[in-house]
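hey can u check if this looks right to u? its 95 residues, i copy pasted from the old doc so theres a chance i mangled smth
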Amino acid sequence: MEPTLHHGQAIWVRMLKEAPSKERTLALRGHVVLVEREEYPGILLLKRIEKVHGDLIWIEGDNKDASISKLQHDSRKFGWISRESLRAVAVRKNS
């Protein structure tokens, strides 16, 4: 997520895992979110919402060069994901 966030930098998030689905609709394009994909339970990805299409979102990392490597873990590799995959929305970062 560099240059937005740097290695070791802390962020504050609002957890959504137990939140009603309606609250997940508040996550909009441009928001930084934590996502848990069904295929990898327990592993959270920190990404930015780039596109929204109804209940589907498209996420990418801010550092596009790093995100397109063999370790690419965003929508350019796995496509659209459901809002139900959202676990948290970033609300603040520490300087």
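DSSP finds three helices and six strands in the chain.
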